Amino acid sequence: MKRSDEIWVKLDVEGAEGLVLEGAQSLLTTERPINLIIEDWDNHWTDYLIDNYGFQLKTTERAFGNRILIKNKPCVYEEEPIRCHLLGTFNAPNTLADEGIGNAFGTKVVNMAKILKKLGHHVIFYGVEGSEVECDEFVQVSTMDVLRKTYGEWDKTKIYPEKYGDFSHTTFNNNCIREINQRKRVGDFLLLCHGTFHKQIADAVQIPSTIEIGIGHRSSFAPFRIFESQFQMAWTYGREDNDLNPNPIPGNRNKGDGRFYDRVIPGFFDPADFKYSEAKEDYFLYLGRIISKKGIFVAQKVCEELDKKLVVAGFSYTEKANAVDAKAFEDLLKLPNVEYVGFAGKEKRKQLMAHAKALFLPTLYLEPFGYVVIEANLSGTPVITTPFGAFPETVRDGYNGYKCWTHREFVDAARNIDKIKPANCRTWAMQYTLDKVAPLYKRYFTQILDLVGKGWYK
């Protein structure tokens, strides 16, 4: 059949679509190839044509409300890229260089951008000067000078401050609101990584598809939420249940019911950021914030009993920030079996994790995910953790590490750590790579888009 035999129709009749389609039965039932472009913001007539006349959706133009349908010829759906407004953190540049490597929220944003680009979406990133994030447009909404005015000169030995309403936070939020409002279109997604630190922005720009990604923090609010673990989702639901909580969170929505458009999608990693090694040296590693709640003294006591060296890397607390942990850290440095190597940038982390006998992460609080567990496993290094929080989901006893209840169990785990094969650790961790997790995000984003039209039932 010649191209001239095809029919092309553009339907834009400002609400009179039903009347037009009712009078176009000969057109809708023709056996000739037909291409139909219809303005249909809520997919009502699109679904009608698909269900009743055998049309197929070819692609969309979400910003203009258009749907392009065809009939009586081969159709391959062409997914329209989603315009994603991806927000960074207000208190640090988002980069894997030293200035950002210690900020878990920022690392999450760097890898989320990689997933979005892998899926073919359009990424507009809003962040601090010095950020290195894959995107189509980098909108700088804060500067290193703002950070210096708020926090002083950057010190790689200290954790990043997070304070609602400080100069850095208000500058970031106000500039984000202005820039997003200048760029937003119908059908865009707003992707948030920093909990209620981003709520002011979300409330101001009013993008319906606002999604919190990788929730491992204790405060969330968006209409669509992606948690890092089944534990974190259950913990959040329990905390939000008004019937159980004597001091409910203002504005919480949970009455003990689940939410169909909340999801669990685990943390994600780029294997290229890590070095795999089967050759191990005679030391155990602790890497992270050097605070008692992260279990640093559990690790130290185990290594002391076994007369093994514990290499400690990470941020410490100042006395001003936390006097108890600051004094404990000072005492820790005096112990003979402890070697403190300070802040570990990307390359230093690679080497430390690749060659350790095991990584200790005996966190005392309920860990939402524990990124360093998977990072160690990608390096071929097993982990020794506690059995609560997200660890029952990320640690399989005897395969990629051990979960321990008592000091004796921690000691036995360290003694038997050589029984765990580095290759098993790597195999386990590969389920958390960008390539494995990207399809989960693709499916979820499609489901959010399908809420326009038949919604939940589609």
Describe what you observe in this structure.
- The chain is α/β, with parallel strands linked by helices and 458 residues long.
- The chain is built from 17 helices and 17 strands.
- The strands form three sheets. Strands 7-6-5-8-9-10-11 form a seven-stranded parallel beta sheet. Strands 14-13-12-15-16-17 form a six-stranded parallel beta sheet, sandwiched between helices.
- Strand 13, helix 11 and strand 14 form a beta-alpha-beta unit.
- The longest helix is centred in the middle third of the chain and has 17 residues.
- The protein is elongated.
- The model has no long low-confidence stretch (mean pLDDT 91).
Give the second-level CATH assignment, the architecture of the largest domain: 3-Layer(aba) Sandwich
Q: Percent helix among the residues?
A: 25-40%
CATH class of the largest domain: Alpha Beta
Major sheet description: 7 strands, parallel
Integer average pLDDT: 91
Q: What count of helical segments does DSSP give? A: 17
Give the topology, please.
Blueprint: E1 7-11, H1 17-22, H2 25-28, E2 34-39, H3 44-53, E3 56-61, E4 66-71, E5 83-87, H4 98-101, H5 104-118, E6 122-128, E7 137-142, H6 144-151, H7 167-183, E8 189-192, H8 199-205, E9 209-215, E10 224-227, H9 230-240, E11 262-264, E12 283-287, H10 296-306, E13 309-313, H11 323-332, E14 338-342, H12 346-355, E15 358-361, H13 371-378, E16 383-385, H14 391-394, E17 401-403, H15 407-415, H16 422-429, H17 434-449
Parallel strand pairs: 1-2, 5-6, 5-8, 6-7, 8-9, 9-10, 10-11, 12-13, 12-15, 13-14, 15-16, 16-17
Antiparallel strand pairs: 2-4, 3-4
Helix pairs in contact: 5-17, 7-8, 10-15, 13-16
